[in-house]
Amino acid sequence: ELFLRPDLVACTFSGSVAISVAVSAPTRFLVLNALDLSVNRTSIRFQALEPTEVVFFKDDGVLVLGFAKQLPLGEGLLKMDFNGILNDQMRGFYRSKYQYKGKERNMAVTQFESVDARRCFPCWDEPAFKAKFKLTLEVPSELVALSNMPVGNATFAGPIKTVRYLESPPMSTYLVAIVVGLFEYVEGMTTKGTRVRVYTQIGKSNQGKFALDVGVKSLNLYKDYFDTPFPLPKLDMVAIPDFAAGAMENYGLVTYREVALLFDDKSSSASSRQSVAITVAHELAHQWFGNLVTMEWWTHLWLNEGFATWVSHLAVDSFFPQWNIWTQFLDSTTTALRLDSLEASHPIEVEIHHASEVDQIFDAISYDKGASVIRMLQSYLGAERFQKAMASYMKKYAYSNAKTEDLWAVLEK
Ligand SMILES: [Zn+2]
């Protein structure tokens, strides 16, 4: 259970967590992740126990809680209160600026991949530690407050509202997302009745219609391709004015840089239409490949990104066959080969030993060379056999994690 109260004027936030922890072996310590948070030491409890030592290891983003005696075995609740800053670094829980009625305003946004959920709340911030999240936000009443799941209920107390979201399925911390600001939206529905919305700045929702159309088509296509329904009750896509990457596949709440999501019939170019389509199809593929079945550890990032890159072309080719998008797939393969020709190149799968190394492998080798290898595999095995293998991989590892070797085993079978 996670509670957060962002202050959009002071650019700070306060919060509390209650994490259900299973102690499976005798220990005196709890070791988890937290970074740039000020944790209220007197609030920390594991069951009724207070820690006698609270130590931060800043370089590792690790918080160590030492207790006087060994912890009771079995499930217990770890609770603590904390404060943080809505930073301007576009990672963790941060502020983005926008204009409304001639005035500059702040919105609160999260960007957690790869290892920045720990900047928003204390947690076990690794992809294999999946948990169900029950989030509550306290925000100004007039603002739109979005998260991974739909709102369960909201209560109003004058200028402040308390929004409680439905409990999520088991998910990794890097996919948790929150967006609080002023937005308008356009809405559509998949064939199975999943509500899809594209949120934009006030006055720009028309520019979300193209992405909405591609989004709805993508969810329909992937449901069939993976033979698995979309796992959440809704999908929102949001254009964020200040955004570090192109887009981020947060479960049920995908965030985008504005140019990666918005398309204006009157002024946008043909190439921007294509890149919006590819980006939306890529992020929505992750809702299954990445979010439902998640890489065991960042070493397997290539699998996540290579697959999403490849399958986004498959999807866009079926929506817009006149684009001959596979010919452009070769352009990105070339970009990857150029990087790969440098002496400092790396294999598509890279051993990651420390959280600080992860950022370095979000490159054309992981994405585009990875995608090219997947494409070779698919043409070697045949489209139908490959698709059936992907569907059984999805069923076998749903709500869990998998390694490259696990995919190989499914393909071999
Ligand atoms: Zn991706």
Automatic annotation (TrEMBL):
**What InterPro entries does the record point to?**
Aminopeptidase_N-like_N, Aminopeptidase_N-like_N_sf, M1_APN-typ, Peptidase_M1, Peptidase_M1_aminopeptidases, Peptidase_M1_dom, Peptidase_M4/M1_CTD_sf
Cofactor annotation comment: Binds 1 zinc ion per subunit.
| UniProt entry tagged with the keyword Membrane | no
Q: Which GO terms describe its molecular function?
A: metalloaminopeptidase activity; peptide binding; zinc ion binding
The protein, known as: Uncharacterized protein
Site feature location: Transition state stabilizer: 367
Q: Where does Zn(2+) bind?
A: 282, 286, 305
Q: Which SUPFAM superfamilies match?
A: Leukotriene A4 hydrolase N-terminal domain (SSF63737), Metalloproteases ('zincins'), catalytic domain (SSF55486)
Q: Which UniProt keywords apply?
A: Aminopeptidase, Hydrolase, Metal-binding, Metalloprotease, Protease, Zinc
One biological-process term from Gene Ontology? peptide catabolic process
Q: Which cofactor does it need?
A: Zn(2+)
Q: Which CDD domains match?
A: M1_APN-Q_like (cd09601)
Which Pfam family would be a valid example here?
Peptidase_M1
Task: Identify the residues that the record assigns to the Aminopeptidase N-like N-terminal domain, covering every copy.
Answer: 2-175
List, alphabetically, the GO terms of the cellular component aspect. cytoplasm; extracellular space; membrane
Q: Which residues form the Peptidase M1 membrane alanine aminopeptidase domain?
A: 210-412
